[in-house]
Design a protein that fits this description.
single chain, alpha/beta, D-Maltodextrin-Binding Protein, domain 2, six-stranded mixed sheet, 11 strands, 46% helix
Amino acid sequence: MTPTRRTAMLAAAAFVAPAVARAQPRWPDRPVTLVNPYAPGGSTDFSTRLVAARMEAVLGQSVVVEARPGAGTAVANAHVAAQRPDGYTLLMGTTSLAVLPALQPASQPRDPVAAFAPCGPATKSYFVLHVHPDLPARTTAELIAYARANPGKLSWGSSGTGAINHMSFELFRAQTRIDAVHVPYRGGAPALIDLQAGRIQAMFSATQEAGPSMEAGKTRGIAVTAPRAIARLPNLPPIADAVPGYETVFWQGVFAPAGTPAPVVAQIEAALKAATADAGVIERLAGAGIETWPGDAATLRTTLARDVETWTRIIREANIQA
């Protein structure tokens, strides 16, 4: 290569480099929207805002939490999946993302694994299996024995068909082969009221809901859906002690629309890791019975794919209709 030609190529490269930089501005250079699929004021909204605030400090831009509740999270999921894949509209997805494809086949996106780019996990929380105090069962094994001795007589409440506490019951019923009746409610609060009144006999509840009820003696705790005892309720054993392999969890993780550039996904992942490792975030979430969920984008991708497979199988075997 002649000196003249080399000089010309270097000059051309020097001209192109600033042009490429201008074509690919720094991300984020404006506020990011994090869509929460539930109504404001609940535990999911609380944890989403807490994580978003810590992400702001890392990204150097506002992370605005926008609530888009409806259709069991399908409204928010479809909205984010349809946005430009530029990293400025994200979804705080939950376990429900894995339930909807089989429960609501007409809802969008039909295939959440293909529709989203997982950025990283955020939080997870478990459920408490508790019963009305008049029920004689005090352990998981005794509850199973009672249900088998009284087929079709045990009423099991949930916060709605397809809710994760409903799916926790369906998995429990499938693994133990008990005959119990599912009673769906419009939310966890009315179901808990009926459990306390004895109109239903059992249900899975979030720890922050079950805790006060058990402390007041209105319900009795049996076990937790975690694979080990949890900090807030250390005296309750895991269901897995009596039903090997049983575990259900309500998780939250951040997703971007499919096609979002890998460098942007990597920055979101890094911000999430910083948020879930923050001592203040961990402490405040723990007070609500929620754990941070360390991991990376691959962790969330694997979890979503696995849960889609699990819940699709359970929904089809039990013929659950939305």
